Amino acid sequence: MIRSELIQKIADENPHLYQRDVERIVNTIFEEIVEAVASGNRVELRGFGAFSVKKRDARTGRNPRTGESVHVQEKHVPFFKTGKLLRDRLNGNES
């Protein structure tokens, strides 16, 4: 599902809301999640999962084309851990 499909589904299920308002709500939610994770905070959506940031230390990597060793700087990467409800649904254990 892409963002526009999500917006359309929410708008269809809530006919009392204008589509432009639903779009603004969805965009605001995503922006807040991005801002929180970008500032190093953890965002948890119960039953769905949690977004956080993991730090990867600096290391020596290898250029696959030349085989040459290269220095890879430390970096921060986004991480998503699924919630129990989502995991159970994926594995066919719906409650």
UniProtKB/TrEMBL annotation:
GO MF term set: DNA binding; structural constituent of chromatin
UniProt-listed GO biological process terms:
DNA recombination; regulation of DNA-templated transcription; regulation of translation
Keywords (A to Z) from UniProt: DNA recombination, DNA-binding, Transcription, Transcription regulation, Translation regulation
Q: Which Gene3D superfamilies match?
A: IHF-like DNA-binding proteins (4.10.520.10)
The GO cellular component terms are: chromosome; cytosol
Q: Which domain of life is it from?
A: Bacteria
InterPro entries given in the database record: Hist_DNA-bd, Histone-like_DNA-bd_CS, IHF-like_DNA-bd_dom_sf, IHF_beta
Q: Where are the transmembrane segments?
A: none
State the family named in the UniProt similarity comment for this chain: Belongs to the bacterial histone-like protein family.
NCBIfam families, A to Z: hip (TIGR00988), PRK00199.1 (NF001222)
Q: How does it assemble?
A: Heterodimer of an alpha and a beta chain.
What function is annotated for this protein? This protein is one of the two subunits of integration host factor, a specific DNA-binding protein that functions in genetic recombination as well as in transcriptional and translational control.
- Mind telling me what this protein is named? Integration host factor subunit beta
Whose protein is this, by species?
Litoreibacter arenae DSM 19593
